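Could you help me review a protein record that somebody else here produced? What it holds is a sequence and that sequence's fold in token form. I have pasted the whole thing underneath without changing anything:
=====
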Amino acid sequence: MDLYIYYRVDAASAAELGARVTAMQSRLCASHRVAATLRRRPGEQDGRQTWMEVYPAIPDGFEAALAQAVGESGLAALTDGPRHTEIFVEFQACA
């Protein structure tokens, strides 16, 4: 199961948000043995950027650990609106 989380951030807060997210992801990678990436949609719209955290092949219980880490990291103060979570499962891999 892969976890995708996207949200908007004011461009003026982007550097601080990036530092907080990458620090949080580093802690989660070490403590839960997950891979994590942080992506940003190119460009801005109305001074806002769209960012996405990607966590492929998450273990059971990871979502609760992530929610706790997000709270501890203070990300809500830097995002513009809610974090949207999408879950995908593998349908078919290349042979």
